[in-house]
Amino acid sequence: MRERFDEEDWRESGACRKADTALFFPVSDDAAGPAKAICAICPVREQCLRFALANREEQGVWGGLTETERRRIRRRRTGADRSLPRHAA
Questions:
Q1: What is the pLDDT of residues 20-55, one digit of tens each?
Q2: CA-to-CA distance for 19 and 72, rounded, in angstroms?
Q3: How far apart are CA 14 and CA 49, in angstroms?
Q4: What does residue 65 show for φ and ψ, rounded to 5 degrees?
């Protein structure tokens, strides 16, 4: 289930609001430093990351994490779901 977010609740407060959008779409994880530096001081970093994970954003830096880092989180969550015991009906 997708988590709903009111864009005005958090996006308007993002530290990235006035930054160059290209910073958040680096050519590699190694080049993500400038975007991550902005995210590090952002008051809505957590909401941004939750949005990206809930909506499976596959490109760019969201909530201070690169595509690769968010993919790892999703894999860990999926792995945790698989490790839970299933109850017999």
A1: 999 999 999 999 999 999 999 999 999 999 999 999
A2: 27
A3: 12
A4: -120, 145
Please give the helix or strand (H or E) that residue 46 lies within, else none. helix 45-54
How many Cβ atoms sit within 10 Å of the Cβ of residue 5? 15
Backbone φ and ψ of 62, nearest 5°: -130, 130
Judge whether 62 and 21 are in contact, CB under 8 Å. no
Question: What CA–CA distance (Å, rounded) separates 81 from 14?
Answer: 32
Share of the chain above pLDDT 70, in %: 80
- Rounded CA-CA distance 29/16 in Å is 18
Distance CA 35, CA 21 (A): 9
